[in-house]
Design a protein that fits this description.
70% helix, globular, 472 residues, mainly alpha
């Protein structure tokens, strides 16, 4: 999902320095050329269209894909008019490679998550929590702590919706509990996804670009924990002390479910090994892990004790075999990926890459990291992530290539990750829970706790400066 906002694009429009074409034709300066103005206008229009996706029913990927195509078309056209389009084409391919690495990584990760969903693993976790007959205050802490750690390896939206299902189920008679627990889940999800390169798009970008190594992200564990705990203690005081009355159920896991969890862990380990030991893209390790899942599905299909009966049932149109076949079909899970969001990110990354190649992001970088201190710049960028998608913001900063130390990159990762908790619409988990707990968790109910969340935001920054001083 896309966060609502145009902050970064407003900067693009305002910062149009006086430029002319550079004498060196290997890189034209197009910031004061019609190509530059046209590209900014197209990008702004695409973001506006994406903002109004819900009212127009126009999927957000469509305008962004068109914007990216138009921007690079006019850039390459301008270079051809000056007799050499190779630099522009090379820049396009470089941006495309960055996107492909991101796409392959997310594709494998989400395929595994879809596989675990089909194996009813998440449903079993939900049933286990419900069956414990805990009171509201115990559930508040358990769901928050669980999602904090789950979000470090699982897509944040998936993790938040999983725990959201639990709190909605057990809090059907207590809207106040559902509202407060949802706020806690959002904060915990965003904080948990910020100390791991696997936790979100922005951290994945930083890892893939080689800015920070895999283990270096864990320096943010304590700051992220502080960011989660400070608002959590405040919210906890308002949680009802009642105990919900709910009916529990027993979920039987299909054959192979637990082994898929192990394979997912092995796949993550392969991604880390490929990056740290072989110096290859982490996506290569993820694709190796995907092959393991494919072979495991093949094994499950061939070793199924009722394979003959199932195939006989298919011949006569049996539905059971079709369900079993879909459950063990890897391509069915790939097809269920959030392709609209993935294609939106293609448009955003390629469009921002084009804006950066034109020269506008260098001008913004000179203001953010030249006229302002890097710390202030990173804190302000983090605050803006409550309005603008943090993955888009992070890619824009990476395109600027600011010369800042490791501690500042960690600070940027922290602020962009947790800044989205300030508003209900500030992150994908927030937007997802607005729909899941409609009428109980609302924008205004979240807004009432924004000052407390902001306290956690600045407290986590202070802790980062304190414990990671050697990184600055």
């Amino acid at each position: 999902m896309v966060k609502k906002g145009l902050g970064i694009l407003a900067l693009l429009v305002c910062l149009l320095p006086n430029l002319a074409f550079a004498d060196d034709l290997t890189h034209l300066d197009l910031t004061h050329h019609w190509v530059g103005y046209f590209s900014v206008a197209v990008m702004v229009a695409a973001y506006i269209a994406a903002m109004f996706e819900e009212s127009t029913q126009l999927r957000k990927s469509k305008p962004m894909l068109l914007a990216a195509a138009l921007i690079w078309f006019v850039i390459v056209l301008a270079y051809q008019q000056h007799g050499n389009d190779l630099p522009a084409v090379t820049a396009f391919k470089s941006n495309l490679q960055s996107y492909m690495e991101l796409l392959l990584f997310i594709m494998v990760s989400m395929t595994y998550l879809n596989a675990m969903e089909d194996m009813r693993i998440f449903e079993a976790l939900k049933a286990w929590l419900v069956s414990k007959q805990l009171n509201y205050r115990q559930l508040f802490w358990i769901t928050g702590i669980l999602v904090f750690f789950i979000a470090s390896v699982v897509n944040g939206l998936t993790a938040a919706l999983l725990m959201g299902t639990v709190v909605v189920a057990v809090g059907k008679d207590s809207p106040k509990f559902v509202s407060l627990a949802c706020i806690n889940i959002i904060i915990a999800t965003n904080a948990g996804g910020s100390f791991s390169p696997l936790g979100g798009i922005s951290t994945l970008f930083v890892w893939q670009h080689g800015i920070l190594g895999f283990v270096e992200f864990f320096k943010l564990f304590i700051p992220c924990l502080v960011n989660f705990l400070i608002p959590a203690f405040g919210l906890f005081l308002a949680i009802p002390k009642d105990k919900p009355s709910i009916n529990s159920e027993v979920i039987k896991l299909p054959r192979g479910a637990k082994r898929i969890i192990v394979l997912f862990a092995v796949t993550i380990a392969l991604a880390v090994m490929f990056d740290m030991n072989l110096h290859m893209p982490a996506a290569a390790g993820m694709m190796a892990g995907l092959s393991l899942l494919q072979f495991f599905y093949f094994y499950l299909q061939k070793s199924s004790p009722d394979q003959t009966q199932s195939e006989f049932a298919l011949f006569f149109g049996g539905a059971d075999y079709q369900s079993q076949h879909n459950r063990l079909d890897i391509f069915e899970k790939v097809g269920r990926l959030e392709w609209d969001t993935l294609l939106f990110f293609y448009g955003a990354m390629m469009g921002i890459g084009g804006i950066g190649y034109i020269g506008y992001l260098d001008a913004i970088s000179q203001i953010l990291y030249g006229q302002l201190s890097p710390s202030l710049a990173n804190i302000l960028i983090g605050l803006s992530s409550a309005f603008v998608d943090n993955g888009t913001l992070m890619f824009a900063i990476l395109t600027m290539h600011p010369d800042i130390p490791q501690g500042q990159w960690l600070l940027l990762t922290l602020t962009l990750g947790v800044g989205g908790s300030l508003l209900a619409i500030g992150s994908a988990p927030g937007i997802g829970l607005l729909g899941q707990a409609k009428g109980q968790y609302t924008f205004s109910s979240h807004m009432k706790w924004t000052p407390l969340i902001l306290l956690g935001y600045f407290a986590s920054i202070g802790v980062h400066f304190l414990i990671n001083a050697a990184s600055f």
